[in-house]
Amino acid sequence: MVVKRYQRPEMAYIWSEQNKYQAWLEVEIAVDRAWSKLGKIPASDLQKIEQNATFQVADILAMEEITKHDVVAFTRTISKSLGPEKKWIHFGVTSTDVVDTANGYLLKQANGLLQQDLKQLLAVVAQKAKQYKTTVMMGRTHGVHAEPTTFGLVLASWYSELKRDLERFDHAANGVQAGKISGAVGTFANVPPAVEAMVCAELGIHPQEISTQVLPRDLHAEYIMTLALIAASLERFALEIRHLQRTEVREVEEHFAQGQKGSSAMPHKRNPIGSENITGLARVMKGYVLPALEDIELWHERDISHSSVERIILPDATELLDYMLHRFTKILEDLTVFEDKMAEDLNVTHGLIYSQRVMLKLIDAGLSREEAYDLVQPKTAKVWAEQVDFRALLEDDERITRYLSVSDLDDAFDYHWHLKHLDEIFERVGLQ
Prior knowledge:
The protein is mainly alpha-helical. Helices cover 62% and strands 5% of the residues. It has 19 helices and six strands. The strands form three sheets. The protein has a two-stranded antiparallel sheet. α8 links the parallel β3 and β4. α9 (218-244) packs parallel to α12 (305-333). It starts with 8 loop residues before the first helix and ends with a helix. GO terms for molecular function: lyase activity.
């Protein structure tokens, strides 16, 4: 189960024993209200149930020690707070009618927080992307300097991914915000569909169009997979920060608070601990996917092999992601960006990052691609080996200056060429 270190109180309360049993009670009372509307339960009995039905968590847990069944322990504890009207508690329904419907209700509460978290992070990423839209930096592939980009474009890619995450989340969240009040094997034999419809409407969730004794678990598998995908997005973003904070790069740095310590042994250390924390927790989140997938295959109309799994992964996954989203939002809000260092690092490879522009200009001047490539590549090898200036080598070779003038090389070595479509890209992403 999630340790308190990775819990926020708002989400932890949703999955507390108190709130869980309160959700069960709200389902039970909603069922009785529906029965009363259908003329089955007298209004006077319903009023007594609404006014007097209560519980203490400790009493339920003590009763479960005897019954070895949590829902029976719950209903018997509730019944102790009532008079003869207690006969209507759990009338016509089965345990999973209550538990699955209550879980849909609890997930709706959790999803409200997660949706807020996602939107808050999305807003921060959007603001930062606009702020650093033209902040030129080194684009890297395979960890190696490639061609110029901007930090704003890096953040714009995060923004686009988070939009997809939010779209996936809304779909998957809606799937698990479902209830079923259809009885022992889902036939509505002892409780009519009208009861299910009224209960779900009262709780603000939707009736599943068909269920067995349980809601179909592909819904929950999709949900957990979606949370894991969001965690994977955060891990991708955090990995970029971790690389850019390396000493030999140091283009960004997580905020280092006054009094903060980076190492017990080395006073100088400033480590990207927040981003590393995100990376580690994402690994845990991904681990929930396999058991969620395996929960889909239940025997016939139900078994409880999924129950123990979901008691762990539903609270844990939502609590962890809530924590991760909040922590990464704070990391990004306070991130230190060394814009001068980003610009300086464009020159680390002595101009090699403009090799493609030189090659393309040679092609434009009349050489074949193969000829241009084979003319430029030996120069790049010499730069790598001897750490000399790439442009100087080009200017000293008559085979190249025959085709390219000084102004051609000036243009080829101008990073602004790589930024000319910034506005168009930002518009496509929705960051006008």
